[in-house]
Give the backbone structure.
Amino acid sequence: MYADVAVCLPLSRTFVYRLNEPVHAGCRVLVPFRRREVEGFVVGLRKDPPSGIAIHDVQKVLDSEPLIRPDVFELCQWISDYYLAPPGEVLKSALPPGISAKHVEKHVAGIAGTVCDRTNAPSLTADQARVLNLIEQSNGFHAILLHGVTGSGKTEVYLRAVESFLARGKTALVLVPEIGLTPQLTERFAERFPGRTAVLHSSLTKRRRIDDWLRIYHGEAPVVIGTRSAVFAPLRNLGLIVVDEEHETSYKQEEMPRYHARDTAVMRAKFGGAVAVLGSATPSMESFRNAEGKKYTYTAISNRVEDRPLPDVEIVNMREEYSAAGKQVVFSRRLIEAVALRLERGEQTMLLLNRRGYAAFLLCRHCGFTFQCTSCSVAMTFHRSIDKLVCHYCGEAKRPPSRCPDCNSEYIYYVGEGTERLEAELRQIFQEARIGRIDRDTMRHIRDYERVLGGFRKGEIDILVGTQMIAKGHDFPRVTLVGVIGADGPLSLPDFRAAERTFQLLTQVAGRSGRGDSPGEVVIQAYVPDHYTFQLACTHRFEDFYAHESRYRKAMFYPPFASLAGITVLDRDPARAATLARDVGKFLDSVKTPAVRILGPAPAPVERIKSVHRHQLLIKSSSRTVLHRMLKQLQQHLEDNKVGATRVIVDVDPVSLM
Ligand SMILES: [Zn+2]
Ligand SMILES: [Zn+2]
């Protein structure tokens, strides 16, 4: 017998090896490969070897039974095909690192928990009951887009739906964007289904990941909560998949294998005849379009629980603040007043600024010199606590100079504020206030989140400052004010999704306000307050935003009205990078059809990261099939010319164009 083996290397094709013992498809084997021994997956079996090539023996069979379930195996093949991802790498990512057949054999079953503990469950509103009913009525595959405003109680709907599927002997998978940012959701599932919930995410220890995976594999944990890789959870009899905050970009894996966990989840539901529920207060353009085209069933909850009003949103024009103060200010008079009022009333405030560090960059006022990272083409950010300039792309850090290295002038200025500066200024204005900060500099571990968020929940912190990390689905009933600083910063990014991201962020962070008994207020500070994104976020008009944004996307031929793929060419040598990018461009031109438009090659928005030069091409197509065929041809062309998959990165449905 012979086996087709997908080796765990960045290669799109499989290789044939001779078998000396029987093996099932899906099992792992060790095979000789280019003078090395590498792990691979058996993806097919055949009686006859292909002629004309030397065939080597499989060195060792690692699994007697495949650890990957047939439906997950099918899903991996779909990912490999759709995203043009190396099949061995995809299959490898479906298993926890370090798992062996021995773990599976030796697993001792734990004690099964109670079925469901509904002690603390609130009763459902009419809206929640209607949505639950829709989910429960589904027979076989069904994709539902649940558009529920912030504070509308989507989590309770998920919990009831899971309960309902468990009662039918089915299992359930709940995907969340980031575990650390959603501790409350995880806790609620663990409380509702005690002893029957497993949590899967990458910051767990290797052993813990294997243990939880085994509990799922052996059917002890029929409820799984996890981040994107949990889409591969070895659940049998899967009945329900929930994708919470489906618009979040963290569902997209930005390294090999590149896949979108939300879209992959819908495919898993399709292969397994399950129900997929995509929930969000700000659905992605893609999912909303799918609902419009009737691929997904659209359902909405437009009222908050207990009919709490959505917060009032006010936009402050920072150009006027500049004129009034005669200089750049971090906080508007309106925001200072509003924070002071909250402190007086004993209520809480959240302030969002989507940039960490103290100052965005250092500028020489004399010659205009800015301090760039030596390995990346980006400005270095000043962090005052460590008194260093830090590159946010590669982490390089150095002391800020006292004089300009270019013209020797001493007029060096700190421009643009970050969360660290926000905190420092707040401490000066409100000396009595208790202030907490959440960003990647202060949050090194999940424990750090729990400490600060826990303190905020208990009322030990008055003002919480942070990056977009604080915008996620937290529920703090005493927050009545949310302030957004520098709201228009992201709009200037060279990304066609900039407006969508800004709308989502503003709506989400505004949704943190007024979740308790007191109504909420939101103050947005912007330099271009008339932008439609602010006006529509202000009035919580998602449909209007969608309609407006759709016109622009259609005119520009961008998703969701075209299929998109991004190609990034990488090389340490700038000339070689440019030449390879031109070759890729020429090849694509030679195989393109009228259904396709190609942009580039051009230097990527961030031209250099960690000393690697980057060029970019974008392919837009009205036909997904044509795009897919072209990419396959390119892949073949590159492999024929021995260009590795690490030098030309193909990204299907990219979410980041930086
Ligand atoms: Zn200078
Ligand atoms: Zn750098």
Remarks:
- The radius of gyration is 26 Å.
- The domain at 126-306 is CATH 3.40.50.300 (Rossmann fold).
